[in-house]
Amino acid sequence: MKKIFKRILIGFVVLIFILISTIGIAIWFVFTPEKLTPIVRKQAAKYITCKSEIGKVELTFFSTFPQFGLKVSKFTLVNHFINAPSDTLISTDQLIGAIDVRAWWKRNELVLTNLQLCNGKINAFIDSLGHTNFDITSKDTIPAPPSTTKSEMPFRFIDIKNVEFDNIAFNYLDKTQKMHAKIDNLVVLFNGSIVSDTLNMHLNVSDCVLSFNYEGEDYFKNASIKLNMPAQVILSKQLIKLGDAEGSINDINLSFSGSAQNDNINQRINTDITYKSKKFPVTSAIALIPPSYQSYVEGLNAVGTASSDGKITRFYSSTKYPLMDIHIILYEGTIKHTSFPLTLTNTQGDFVFYSDLADDTLTYFRINKFSANTPKSSFSTSGMITHLFSDITYDLTSSTNNLNLAEFTPMIPASLKMTIKGNASGTMRTAFSMSQLDKMLLNKMKFSGSVALSNFDVLYDSIYMKTDYSTVDFSLPNSNISSKNTKFMYSKIKSKNLEAGTLKSYKTFMKDALISLETSDVMDTTKLPDVACTFAVDSLAASMDTIKFTARKPSGNFTMLSKSKKDKNSQDKIVLAYSNDRMRTNMGSKISMRMNKANLNADVVNFMTNPAIKLAFSGNSLAMRMDTITVGMDKAQMNTEVADYSTQPKVKFAYSSDNLNIQMGKNNSVRVSKIQMNTDVANDTTQQDIFLKWPVKGFLNMENGMISMSSFTKPFEIPSIKMDFDPEVFNIKESKLKIDRSDFSLTGTLKNIKSYFKKDSLLRGNFNFESNQTDVLQLMSLTSGIGNEKTDSIAKPATTGTTSSGPYMVPKGMDVTLKTKINKAFFGTEIAKDISGEVRVKDGILVLDDLIFTTPASKMQLTAMYKTPRKNHIYAGFDYHMLDIEIESLLKMIPDLDSIMPMLRSFKGKGEFHMAAETYLDSMYNPKKSTIRGASSIKGHDLVLMDGETFSGISKMLFFNKKTENKVDSLSAEFTVFKQEIDVYPFMLVMDKYKAVVSGRHNMDMSFNYDISLVQPLKLCLNISGTMDKMKKRLVKCKYGDLYRPTSRMMVQNKQLELRRIIRESLLKNVKKE
Amino acid sequence: MNMKKYIICLVTFLSISFMFNSCTKDDNFDEALLAGKWQSGTVFFRYTSDGNGVTWDTADDVTEAEGQKFTWTLKKAELTQIHIMSIGGNVPKVYTVTVLTATSLKYHDSFGVTYSFTKV
């Protein structure tokens, strides 16, 4: 075996030697450069139209092993072309190539191997008209017949192996496309074969420096490019199918595959390329951004690594770009931007850019994830950015575990004067377009999220807000709709401690607050926003200047709805329901209010145009204080309804409470155990006076009231009052009052109240006044002065230096009648019983009309009149009728009577007494003497004449029998008072057998002048004059001796009787028959 | 003095007195002259021709409008004024006129009190 192998090996070596020798002889001796060079030059000139320079052509075997090839040195093609940057088309130091001649000869196959270009340059140029400098082959002079069949390759098979460019500079300038590509240091290896019209190739660019300019834009500038690309090219379809290609641009390594096809019909390139990069520096990628797009990253300093994969599909044409689906992953990086004061570290991202750079609806930039840290904060974002070529639209969801807000303070414009501190965490979704943001179209934007604020402190100018911990949930538009009208926004704030206010005055503090708010579009300036708010706070404190307010557990809800533009029947509406457990407010140190458990419900309709208001308030243990006035009440309830507010407001007000307690100063107070009041108020816009402008009707029900006033020493007790009232009429159904010793019930009607205030009519009242006992003077002092003018225009000031409050002034402008029924009445120290009659007050006149009452002295009938036209001119008049009175008691009752008829002192017994008198008084109640008028009639029977000193003197002068009994059978006398004169008209005294006529005058200075005419048993007349201390008695001619003898009466005597008749009849006219 | 002498003396005196009083002066005054306003110090009277009048005293801070009413009659020399009280009741006063001219009025009452007025 060894020999066989040895022989075979020897044979093989010999064969190799012979072969090498043959090749050597052929190369060095047969096909020498001197023989080959002219042949090649000749053939080149035949096929190439431009100037060619071929240095030396030699046959080579070992360079193109196992094929024989040609090696051309100093090969140059020069083609002078206008505007071309260079006349040199191709220039290379060495060109080596081998063609399989046998394959070409026998099988019509072009097998090109080991084509090598070294140290050369290629300048390709296409001018603006499409003329190229590389169209250097000679054209056929005979036009080819029109092709009716499918074009065919000149070779059945083309095989290109090991085409290698080494250090080639390639310059390509296409003025039709405004494209300039420049490749330096190109080292490339190309293998390929064409079968039929399919080229299977492998391109390996191991190194080159690429610059590429398109339409003036440098897309690559000295980029280091490497490429290893297997591909299949179907020439007829101008389709290239990429195998698993790899390449790099600078230090960005890519692998890619797919296909690209030149679509001549549609004048476009169809692409379907998938790529994937390895990690690359972000700075390298940013450096690839064309200059015209560098502005987008101006100020950006990004460091880190990233990778990308994606697809480029669809087609590229002069008007269209292919569809790019680019996925970018950002690994650990650091980003800094001049507009952002913070450096973002540990940035990580995952993005997708999907676009054909033309179709805005198709394009998007999706952030699958982006997270970053600032020195004290961290955050992450994901979402979509669409409409990149028109109205950029963001839909991003951002979240943070810890956002240190103070870090972001430098981002706030200094003009805002705003500082912010604290931490925030939470999630927020934002969806809006730039145009919406510019125009602040909040109704089209979407914001939602949940943010937790801790140790939050924000100051905007002088407004601040602080919270130790709060959560804010918000949604715009409202995702938690409770009403179809509040779709715009929803917010829920939950705070442990929240403080807000202004630095100088306003301050609010809330603890454990829960506030939710829904609104309609707040940016709609054509209407007020609809609002729905609910709140529940554990404690609330607010202050503004000197006003302070605190509340425990305030809670409620507030709804405000505006009128719908679509629904004409809709109305503006505010609904409020509020309650708190304990509330206290005060304004300075003098005004305060506090209450326990309070509820307030408000319902306001049409508040923008013609509000209709309903308010319902209930509160317990309400206490208010204003200076020295305090008001307290339990179980207070107030209901108010207001309608037609803007035209003619109508108000319904209902109030009730227990234990109402009003204190004004130390001595004025009102206490009511139960009060209920309902009122209707209808505004009268034609009136000016406030009482007339707001006439009130309704009813009042009050129980167990007590009113104390400093001006009145005794309190008013009001066991009960029930009354209806309207602007014109007060109808007192029941009223019981107690004032010290007086107690009474008053029922009846007071009319013309409105007219009274309008001064159209008297105030008319008709009341039943029933009382067990009444202190008349006390009641009079209560009503003194109502309706009177404050000054007396005529009167001179009354005695100065007194503390008198002036006389009792009868109310004016009213006509009030009291039908009295009083069991016991006190007039100072006097007591009257069983009083019945009318007390009437009419426009400054007080009339006691036919009052019948019983005094210890007698049963009386009294008509009295008291008028107060002015303070210093007061009328007092009375008409007294005492039908069965002890004269002694009469004098006690009317002491002044003793001055008028001193002889009455001398009588004892019962009589009949009628008296009318009047006078005007000054403001101190001093009678104006010039105005005193009076008339009296007295009649008595069986009177006992007291044995006084005066009577003794008189009886002695008139020769009365000493044994005569001092008994007067009858007495009938009239006297008048005029100014200071008291005239006693002649009257007859009958005693036993004596008859005497007495007449005379008594003066207020206590001087007198009396005539006593004894007419039986003899005529004897005595005149008594002077004073009681200095009395003159003398016998005189009888004046009235025949007074009671009609036949003998003289004219004077008749006159006197006539006058007596006038006096008596005028007096008796008023006596009421029982 | 016994009773008889006493009676004779009394009758004598009475006869003398009747002699002196039987011829009374019978003056007539024109009541038209009374109409008008009369003043005596601070006291005023206004008589109106329909028989009514008012009186007032400015010393008591009373004006004419506030004056008190009366009715009057003048028969020969007898001037009767019936003062009317608002409360009811009348106060008659009778005077004897001694002078009544266009400017002067004088009268007296039965107690010898005289009043003198001038017209204003």
Architecture overview:
The complex is a heterodimer of chains A (1074) and B (120). Chain A is mostly beta strands and 1074 residues long. Among the domains of chain A are: 22-134 and 154-236, no CATH class; 741-785 and 809-841, no CATH class; 899-1068, no CATH class. Chain A has 13 helices and 51 strands. Chain A has a 51-stranded mixed sheet that branches. In chain A, strand 14 (323-337) and strand 15 (340-355) form a beta hairpin. Chain A is rod-shaped, with a radius of gyration of 66 Å. Residues 790-804 of chain A have low confidence and may be disordered. Chain B is α+β, with helices and mostly antiparallel strands and 120 residues long. Chain B has a single domain (25-119), classed as Lipocalin, CATH 2.40.128. Chain B has an eight-stranded antiparallel β-barrel. In chain B, strand 5 (78-84) and strand 6 (90-100) form a beta hairpin. The longest helix of chain B has 19 residues, at 3-21. Chain B is globular and about 60 Å long. The model of chain B is unreliable at 16-25 (pLDDT under 50). At the A-B interface, strand 41, strand 42, strand 44, strand 45 and strand 46 of A face strand 5 and strand 6 of B.
List strands and helices in order, with pairings.
The complex is a heterodimer of chains A (1074) and B (120).
Chain A: H1 2-30, H2 33-47, E1 51-60, E2 69-78, E3 88-99, H3 101-107, E4 109-126, E5 157-174, E6 179-195, E7 198-214, E8 217-234, E9 239-249, E10 252-263, E11 268-277, E12 280-281, H4 282-287, H5 291-294, E13 300-317, E14 323-337, E15 340-355, E16 364-373, E17 378-386, E18 393-404, E19 418-433, H6 434-439, E20 446-460, E21 463-476, E22 489-502, E23 507-519, E24 531-544, E25 547-552, E26 555-561, E27 573-587, E28 591-605, E29 612-626, E30 629-643, E31 650-664, E32 668-682, H7 690-693, E33 696-709, E34 712-725, E35 730-739, E36 742-751, H8 753-757, E37 763-775, H9 776-783, E38 814-827, E39 830-842, E40 845-854, E41 859-870, E42 873-886, H10 887-893, H11 896-900, E43 907-908, E44 910-921, E45 933-945, H12 949-957, E46 967-978, E47 981-991, E48 994-1003, E49 1008-1016, E50 1020-1026, E51 1031-1036, H13 1051-1068
Parallel strand pairs in A: 4-5, 37-38
Antiparallel strand pairs in A: 1-2, 2-3, 3-4, 5-6, 6-7, 7-8, 8-9, 9-10, 10-11, 11-13, 12-13, 13-14, 14-15, 15-16, 16-17, 17-18, 18-19, 19-20, 20-21, 21-22, 22-23, 23-24, 24-25, 24-26, 25-27, 26-27, 27-28, 28-29, 29-30, 30-31, 31-32, 32-33, 33-34, 34-35, 35-36, 36-37, 38-39, 39-40, 40-41, 41-42, ...
Chain B: H1 3-21, E1 36-40, E2 43-47, E3 52-57, E4 68-75, E5 78-84, E6 90-100, E7 104-108, E8 114-119
Antiparallel strand pairs in B: 1-2, 1-8, 2-3, 3-4, 4-5, 5-6, 6-7, 7-8
